[in-house]
């Protein structure tokens, strides 16, 4: 049995103010003293109060602000994602309210609740949201679009990358060059993107006679890539090629190999995933799967603005972006760009 919904009267009683004051505070009106506003928001967050959609529609006030809740803001992937979102937001006359939760579900829940009354809609990236009902319980009653987020029961539009197809294409590329012992540096254990990339790697290895794979843990950052690179170098039999599940880890591996005096790709081939801007400027330039990261962010915001302007209910739609294989120097193959696999978007 679900918990009883918290009402605006519950918030008013707990905060010791009137219902009208709670309404003004949550909707961002200027005629509320800042200490009172903070008190009301604190109580609303603690009680997990969400305004009823019908009540919200009675007010035509718009904040002209969009909330963006991400697992992190560190690294070139998130910089590119925010750049794409911000570019469209500026041309659309919208402000951004950005929050990150560093992979902590409790911090994420707090960040989502803190957006209430401050934004017209939400972009949410939640690759760690695997527990049943997490998003449904914590998302405020606002237009929402998800980015790279696995839904327990599809309820919102989602823009996602076909990570399995991308990893499959990259592993096949390395195998096509004659490499038979491949090492894979994975991402965080509970990250959906990381799991899909690992699945693509395993499927490609299983389909190739005589191929074998070695797997190493990573955290999608340079430090874990460097650590995995050291572990790979310590193997009794060094692999022919390394496929890191993102470019940041691939760059960490590249540094580890350079420190050990290995030449890439002559001594060991290397590839990544994402095609962050830095990938083409390192030496050797990095073979990778190109994800149009800025486009991903802009497309998600474009869909959200349609929802906001139409004041429509959320619809379960899947928009799938297919990554492209970008062959550069680090894998030893001839430079080329090719789609991983054509796949239709649903919705």
TrEMBL record:
Gene3D superfamilies assigned to the protein according to its UniProt record, in alphabetical order: 3.40.50.2300, lambda repressor-like DNA-binding domains
InterPro entries found in the cross-reference section: HTH_LacI, LacI/GalR-like_sensor, Lambda_DNA-bd_dom_sf, Peripla_BP_I
HTH lacI-type domain span: 6-60
Presence of the UniProt keyword ATP-binding in the record: no
Pfam family, one: Peripla_BP_3
One GO molecular-function entry: DNA binding
PANTHER family noted in UniProt: HTH-TYPE TRANSCRIPTIONAL REPRESSOR CYTR, LACI-RELATED TRANSCRIPTIONAL REPRESSOR
Keywords for this protein: DNA-binding, Repressor, Transcription, Transcription regulation
Protein name (database record): LacI family DNA-binding transcriptional regulator
Keyword Lipid metabolism in record: no
